[in-house]
Recover the amino acids of this structure.
């Protein structure tokens, strides 16, 4: 044990971790939910810190545009067309061969989330959409698993730490998920790598506090930073759980976990396509969405009328052919070029934004 602890000597020297804290970290299981810009930073830090079991979950594949900010990946991974979870597992094993690392290539959804987070000491958010975060929130609150929320787009980052039955949960702060098309994504608005690094490291530090048994020292506020403008805010949210009639942590109505608040997907027979039907009742301004997408470099053949918005994007079961994405005013979309739900949901999250 002494030899193993020597590896983490500089971490053990920290009075707020120490040897006991390091032993707690080594005995912990951390689940990284999503392995993009935030998730790669989180997984990298937790692997180096010696978290005993590291489970990395992601549904997507590596693209060249990811390399600007997703720190575990390189051009070789991209050339090999590897899933992010598989590439992250390989890289983290090279970083630390003494811990247990599992990369899982799947879409986090109501049907599998409880199994995916089973046994976790902490769940850390690396997701790219609110629907997944609300599913994670339901599952973690239900099973009393601490989790760390994080998000970044443009130069703006947000994070908060949730301890079920102690702190507000994400639905105490954001009662409903923003409808599709209403929030920018990294693929439509861009993202500064520095802010994903900052928020990912903040999330990882919060996760280490939980693993080390230092939950009293977690961040108890909603942290927001605009890194380009140098603006920092820490919102007082400690009493939100007391004053809000939260449907999740107060009434224990796990509607996203039960699929009531989630989008549904349908494979279209004989069309090599998947239809996504959001349950938000959203109404999209297709012309405004088209204007936003015009600045996206990987989109081609964009056309719009009052009935639909159509464009081509990379990906799909036959990468050379790519995807044809058709979006309707009710936020429904048909993603042609794949039969895989995970691929379709990834494309929807990237370009529609939910």
């Amino acid at each position: 044990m002494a030899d193993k602890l020597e590896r983490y000597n500089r971490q053990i020297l920290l009075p707020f971790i120490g040897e006991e804290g390091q032993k707690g970290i080594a005995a912990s299981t951390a689940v990284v939910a999503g392995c993009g810009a935030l998730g790669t930073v989180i997984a990298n830090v937790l692997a180096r810190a010696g978290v005993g079991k590291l489970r990395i979950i992601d549904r997507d594949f590596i693209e060249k545009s990811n390399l600007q900010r997703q720190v575990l990946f390189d051009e070789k991974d991209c050339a090999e067309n590897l899933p992010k979870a598989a590439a992250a597992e390989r890289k983290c094993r090279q970083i630390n061969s003494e811990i247990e690392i599992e990369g899982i290539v799947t879409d986090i959804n109501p049907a599998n989330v409880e199994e995916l987070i089973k046994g976790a000491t902490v769940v850390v958010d690396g997701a790219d959409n609110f629907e997944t975060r609300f599913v994670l929130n339901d599952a973690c609150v239900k099973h009393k698993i601490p989790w760390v929320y994080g998000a970044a787009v443009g130069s703006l980052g947000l994070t908060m730490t949730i301890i079920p039955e102690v702190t507000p949960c994400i639905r105490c702060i954001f009662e409903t998920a923003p409808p599709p098309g209403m929030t920018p994504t990294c693929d439509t608005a861009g993202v500064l790598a520095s802010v994903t690094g900052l928020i990912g490291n903040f999330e990882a530090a919060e996760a280490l506090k939980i693993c080390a048994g230092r939950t009293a020292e977690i961040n108890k506020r909603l942290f927001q930073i605009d890194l380009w403008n140098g603006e920092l805010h820490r919102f007082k949210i400690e009493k939100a759980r007391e004053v809000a009639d939260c449907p999740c942590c107060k009434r224990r109505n796990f509607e996203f976990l039960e699929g009531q608040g989630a989008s549904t997907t349908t494979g279209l027979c004989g069309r090599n396509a998947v239809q996504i039907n959001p349950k938000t009742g959203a109404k999209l301004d297709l012309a405004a969405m088209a204007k936003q997408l015009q600045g996206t470099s990987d989109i081609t053949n964009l056309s719009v009328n009052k009935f639909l918005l159509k464009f081509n994007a990379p990906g799909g079961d036959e990468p050379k052919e790519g995807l044809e994405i058709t979006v309707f005013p009710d936020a429904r979309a048909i993603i042609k070029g794949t039969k895989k739900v995970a691929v379709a949901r990834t494309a929807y999250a990237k370009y529609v934004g939910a």
Q: What stands out?
A: The chain is about 35% helix and 20% strand. The first strand starts at residue 29 and ends at 33. The chain has two domains: 2-243, 264-351.
